[in-house]
Automatic annotation (TrEMBL):
GO BP annotations, alphabetical order: proteolysis
Name of the protein in question: Isoaspartyl peptidase
Superkingdom classification of source: Bacteria
Annotated GO MF terms: hydrolase activity, acting on carbon-nitrogen (but not peptide) bonds, in linear amides; peptidase activity
Cross-referenced InterPro entries: Ntn_hydrolases_N, Peptidase_T2
Species this protein is from: Rufibacter glacialis
Gene3D superfamilies for the chain: (Glycosyl)asparaginase (3.60.20.30)
Site residues by UniProt (Cleavage): G178, T179
Active site, UniProt feature: T179
Signal peptide: none
Length: 313
């Protein structure tokens, strides 16, 4: 194992109007516990010399399996009362990437995205083609009931007869952007990023957000950084957020902290784009900026204690 590289992992479980007043003590505890479990899963892979791609996939699988987050099992309902999920994963060493959008009944969309990366000549598959690819590669499917959560269904019922869509899990129409993601730097100096989402409650069917779009919601490049975003996807697409951070580092020489702060707190905010991201640089620097009231997040850098947070510090 190459000891000279530090290793690090960061993750998010969505951003938005997340305040201490909006969560009960029990909910706060449940979210922190889920974030810690996912963080521990990915970190153990890195600690044992596993690669960054494995670590981000495994981390996101834990978050997809948790009904608290709007990805995988906890995905929200679209305009038709269905679940359509998106995911992407990218390798910083080779710039290989795999992404899927609009998939239904796939238990872990991030695993499907990883299969696209490793076992196809393509980057991006959608809907029925992606599902057929999943079946051919042994990816697990689940019935609709697996993805049903009462809270998500109640949110949809409140909106389904309107043209309003809602940005994730909230009793009111406050903004919450439900996406999960992870970034990692492994002991070999390689970076990777992964993102998965159920999108927006009552979104138009076949709507695609930033999460599966390489360069918008997900990006990794060993020369610079790995980034996974969460927020109002339309803005993250227009401003090519993940790639912009990498470019600011590569072409302007900015640090990860300065590049991500410039994009999240200035470029996005000036135009009404709300959300945040997690990122790690090739040197192991971590950044977790967000311009919303809260972001479910965590980070664990080798030699330091793991950290999990929800609200603005």
């Amino acid at each position: 194992m190459d000891k000279q590289h530090p290793f690090a992992l960061a993750l998010h479980g969505g951003a938005g109007t997340i305040t201490r007043a909006s969560l009960t003590l029990e909910q706060d505890h449940q979210y922190r516990q889920a974030l810690e479990q996912a963080l521990h899963t990915g970190y153990q892979i890195l600690k044992q010399g596993g690669d960054a791609l494995q670590a981000v996939e495994a981390t996101v699988v834990v978050l997809e399996d948790c009904p608290l987050f709007n990805a995988g099992r906890g995905s929200v309902f679209n305009k038709q009362g269905k679940h359509e999920m998106d995911a992407a994963i990218m390798c910083g060493k080779t710039l290989a990437a795999g992404a899927v959008t609009g998939v239904r009944n796939v238990r872990n969309p991030i695993q499907l995205a990883n299969q696209v990366l490793h076992h196809s000549d393509h980057v991006f598959l959608c809907q029925h083609g992606a599902e057929e690819f999943a079946r051919n590669h042994g990816i697990a499917f689940e019935p609709d009931a697996y993805f049903f959560t009462q809270q998500r269904h109640d949110q949809w019922l409140a909106l389904r007869d309107s043209d309003t869509y809602m940005l994730d899990h909230s009793e009111t129409r406050e903004k919450k952007f439900g996406t999960v993601g992870a970034v990692a730097l492994d002991v070999h100096g390689n970076l990777a990023a992964a993102t998965s989402t159920g999108g927006m409650t009552n979104k138009n069917f076949n709507r695609i957000g930033d999460s599966p779009i390489i360069g918008a919601g997900t990006y990794a490049n060993n020369r610079t950084c790995a980034v996974s975003c969460t927020g109002h996807g339309e803005f993250f697409m227009r401003y090519v957020v993940a790639y912009d951070i990498s470019c600011l580092m590569e072409y302007k020489g900015l640090s990860l902290a300065n590049a991500s702060a410039l994009v999240v707190h200035k470029k996005l905010k000036e135009h009404g784009g709300e959300g945040g991201l997690v990122a790690v640089s090739a040197t192991g620097e971590i950044a977790l900026p967000f311009n919303s009231e809260g972001m479910y997040r965590g980070a664990w850098v080798a030699g330091k204690e793991p950290e999990v947070a929800i609200y603005q510090e």
